[in-house]
Structures are given as structure tokens and as C-alpha cells.
């Protein structure tokens, strides 16, 4: 509280200093333009008006010397320059003052802009808003994509997968699973001509982006991780057009329609890399530092990361800001897109950093199953193996992706009970 009061006093002090500076500059302007005061009837004309009249006299009188004309013009230019400089300084000071005020008042103004103020209800009845309003669609962003989405989307939602020739075999397995389940609103973003032709031949809806050097270089030659990082740039237009997007990497097998299992109450709804209730949904991790004596135990909150290969975004401002933040950071440094994705979602605001204010939800780890859960837990538990049928299986933990995807189809679709048994828990 003392620190907060100190910051408040410093802010008030800075406001007073800025106000004094503004007053001094305004006084300088007045001194230049009104050297004899505001109310002197004989000299109430502004410096500009006097110079204008003097110039008129010069033009109408043959008696004025050329030196006098040159001097008056020089004075006029000098005063104009000083006036422009003073205006610039006042504008800069005003901006600094506005920035200083934003920290304390902008949050309140944003809340007021969202709706009328209400009173809090009785204890236990108060629930905060979790669902942000969707944006107003703007078809001018990409009319061609808008037309495609209008034809294939269901309830303004679509599954989007990015693919190039390097992942064609996995894409085939995924498309077969999509058709088997009967999902209609599925779209492949073709990153090269090979995938475009493949989609045409197999009657799969696709979208080929307009030429973009930055995207095309990675899109045509990049591997699984490199292509995965492109999605944060590509998906923005989908959201701007007003569509909810379920992003899917190609190493995913669909066993049910995922849209029947979404909550749609958050900006971001993502599957987890966690493998049990604690790691998937969060837990209190106690850090022990014996040298601290009585205060040796420090409580920390931990959760395993959201998987950036399968997540649902509602078309909201926070969701678009998330894409912008991640895409910007990926363009400036060689970092893993999933790490950046989670840092932007979870890091709180702190000095010199304003966090993303996006609501988020973790998907059910048995419905939206990662391959660690499947191969380390489910296949070894008779009850889970028998009763659990996931919505999707994401082979994200294992490099032999294609073979494990095929085994998932054999087990869950064709009923081959030993289809998963030959694989190790991890990678060899």
C-alpha cells in the first residue's frame, strides 16, 4: 500500500510539473503574439496581422525600401517557425500527460464502455463475464476466402489444417478420418501446388493464399514445426471474417465431430500437453528451500502447456491480439511457437509489460487426447481402454507419427485390440 501511495504521489507530481510547463509555453506564445497585452486597443492586433498589414502597406507604397520588405518577411518566417516549434512541444507534453493518466484510468473506462455499471449481488451469486463479444465481420479483408468459408462453414465455424508436400502422408490419414466421421466444415490451407492438386483430386475443400514471400518460403519447404508456426499469421483473416476456427495440425486423427464437444465460453479453448488431472488442469507445487528455515516452503502454481497444434479460437479481439503477439515474436526470433503461444496466454502484467487479457479453457484430456496419455496410460488400463473413445488423438509426443496414427485408426475404428501394443511408451 505504501508503494502504491508513493506511485500515486509521483504521478500527481508529474502532472503538476507537466501542467506548469504547458502554462509556460502558452505564456511564451502570448508574449510573442501580444507583446502589449490582450486589452491594449492600439496594439491588440496579433503579430501575424501586423505583419500582414505591413506587407500590404509595402505592396501599396512605393516609398518602402526593399530592405524593409525583406526584414518584415524574415520576421514573419522566424515567428512562424517559433510558433510551430511551440505547438510541437505542447503536443508532445500533452501526449505524455495522457500516457501518465492511462495507467490509472484506462481500465475503468474500458469496463464502462462494455456496458452499464451494476451492483454486486449477495454472497455466492456473483459471476464475472467469461465470454467476450465477437467482432463485426469484415469481408473486405479477403473476399475470396470469405466466399469459400460461406460455402463450407457450419454455424460460422471451420476446422483449418495447414499442409505442404512434406506432410502429405499424414494429411491423407487425417482426411480419411474427417470423411469417416462426416465432418463437412474442414478446410486445408495448401502451402504449395502439390497439396493444392492433391485436394482437387480428392474433393477436399482447400484455400491457396495469395503470394507472400515470408510465408511461401517456409510453407513450401518447412518441416512440421516450421509450418506450425505459420498458422498464427494465416488464421487472422479467418477471425476477421467472423468465423470460429478450430486449428488442427496434420498429425491428428478425428474419431468424433469435435464441434459437439466445445464449450465456446472462452476466447481460447485448447487441448493440453498434460497427462493427468494435475498436469492438464493445474496444481499447487510446493518448492522447498531448507536454508530459509521457517519460510522454507513456497507455493507455486503449475500447469502443463496448452498444445498449439489443436485449439479453438472465437472471433474476438483478444483472440486476434493473441495471434498478432505470437506472429510478431516469431518473426523476430527463432523460438518454438508453442512456447510463445503459452507465454502470451499465461504471463501476467508486470512492470514494463502489459499482458494479454484473453479468457481460456483446457479441453478434456481424455476427449482431446495427446499421444502420451494414450500410450502411457490408456492402452495399459483395461477400463480406460475399453470405455474411453476420444474425440481426437494427437500424436504430438512421438516422432513416428504416421505409424502411430495408422495404429490409432486400427484400434479405434477397425477394432484391432493389439494395434497399439508394439509401440514403446516414448521414442527410441
Report on the structure:
The radius of gyration is 32 Å and the shape is elongated. The strands form 3 sheets. Strands 3-2-1-4-9-6-10 form a 7-stranded mixed beta sheet, with helices on both faces. It has helices spanning 2-33, 47-60, 66-114, 143-152, 168-181, 193-201, 213-221, 224-240, 277-281, 317-332, 337-346, 371-377, 382-387, 401-412; strands at residues 157-163, 186-190, 206-208, 244-248, 252-254, 268-272, 283-288, 297-302, 306-313, 360-362, 368-370, 392-394. It is an alpha/beta fold and 428 residues long. Residues 1-5 and 41-62 have low confidence and may be disordered. The chain has 14 helices and 12 strands.
Key structural traits:
seven-stranded mixed β-sheet; 49% helix; single chain; three-stranded mixed β-sheet; elongated
| DSSP summary: helix tally | 14
Biggest sheet, open or closed, and with what strands and sense?
Answer: 7 strands, mixed
Overall pLDDT score: 85
Per DSSP E runs of 2 or more residues, the count of β-strands stands at 12
The SSE string, one letter per element, is HHHHEHEHEHHEEEHEEEHHEEHHEH
The Rg value, from CA coordinates, equals 32 Å
- Fraction of residues in helix: 40-55%
Report the structural category.
alpha/beta
Report the β-strand fraction as a percent range.
Answer: 5-15%
- Taking pLDDT < 50 over at least 5 consecutive residues as the criterion, the unreliable ranges are 1-5, 41-62
Distance between the termini: 55 Å
Strand order of the largest sheet: 3-2-1-4-9-6-10
Shape: elongated
Amino acid at each position: 500500500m505504501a508503494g502504491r501511495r508513493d506511485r500515486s504521489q509521483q504521478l500527481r507530481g508529474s502532472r503538476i510539473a507537466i501542467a506548469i510547463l504547458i502554462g509556460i509555453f502558452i505564456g511564451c506564445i502570448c508574449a510573442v503574439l501580444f507583446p502589449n497585452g490582450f486589452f491594449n486597443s492600439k496594439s491588440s492586433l496579433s503579430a501575424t496581422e501586423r505583419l500582414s498589414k505591413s506587407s500590404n502597406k509595402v505592396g501599396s507604397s512605393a516609398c518602402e525600401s526593399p530592405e524593409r520588405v525583406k526584414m518584415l518577411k524574415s520576421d514573419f518566417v522566424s515567428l512562424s517557425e517559433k510558433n510551430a516549434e511551440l505547438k510541437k512541444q505542447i503536443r508532445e507534453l500533452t501526449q505524455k500527460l495522457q500516457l501518465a493518466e492511462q495507467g490509472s484510468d484506462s481500465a475503468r473506462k474500458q469496463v464502462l464502455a462494455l456496458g452499464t455499471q451494476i451492483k454486486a449481488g449477495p454472497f455466492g451469486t456473483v459471476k464475472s463475464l467469461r465470454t467476450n463479444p465477437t467482432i463485426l465481420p469484415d469481408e473486405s479483408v479477403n473476399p475470396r476466402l470469405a466466399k469459400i468459408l460461406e460455402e463450407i462453414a457450419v454455424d460460422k465455424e471451420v476446422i483449418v489444417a495447414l499442409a505442404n508436400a512434406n506432410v502429405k502422408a499424414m494429411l491423407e490419414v487425417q482426411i480419411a478420418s474427417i470423411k469417416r466421421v462426416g465432418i463437412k466444415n474442414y478446410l486445408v490451407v495448401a502451402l504449395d501446388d502439390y497439396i493444392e492438386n492433391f485436394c482437387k483430386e480428392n474433393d477436399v475443400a482447400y484455400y491457396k493464399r495469395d503470394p507472400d514471400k515470408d510465408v511461401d518460403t517456409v510453407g513450401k519447404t518447412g518441416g512440421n514445426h516450421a509450418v506450425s508456426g505459420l498458422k498464427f499469421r494465416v488464421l487472422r483473416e479467418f477471425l476477421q471474417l467472423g468465423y470460429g476456427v478450430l486449428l488442427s495440425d496434420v498429425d491428428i486423427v478425428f474419431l468424433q465431430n469435435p464441434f459437439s464437444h466445445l464449450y465456446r465460453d472462452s476466447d481460447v479453448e485448447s487441448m493440453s500437453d498434460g497427462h493427468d488431472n494435475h498436469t492438464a488442469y493445474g496444481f499447487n507445487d510446493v518448492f522447498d528451500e531448507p536454508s530459509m528455515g521457517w519460510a522454507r516452503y513456497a507455493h507455486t502454481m503449475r500447469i502443463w502447456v496448452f498444445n498449439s497444434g489443436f485449439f479453438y479460437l472465437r472471433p474476438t479481439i483478444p483472440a486476434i491480439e493473441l495471434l498478432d503477439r505470437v506472429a510478431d515474436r516469431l518473426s523476430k526470433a527463432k523460438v518454438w511457437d508453442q512456447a510463445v503461444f503459452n507465454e502470451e496466454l499465461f504471463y501476467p502484467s508486470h512492470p514494463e509489460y502489459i499482458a494479454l487479457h484473453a479468457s481460456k479453457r483446457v479441453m478434456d484430456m481424455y476427449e482431446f487426447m495427446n499421444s502420451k496419455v494414450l500410450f502411457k496410460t490408456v492402452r495399459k488400463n483395461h477400463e480406460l481402454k475399453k470405455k474411453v473413445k476420444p474425440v481426437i488423438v494427437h500424436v504430438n509426443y512421438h516422432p513416428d507419427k504416421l505409424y502411430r496414427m495408422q495404429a490409432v485408426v486400427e484400434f479405434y475404428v477397425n477394432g484391432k485390440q493389439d494395434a497399439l501394443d508394439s509401440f514403446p511408451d516414448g521414442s527410441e
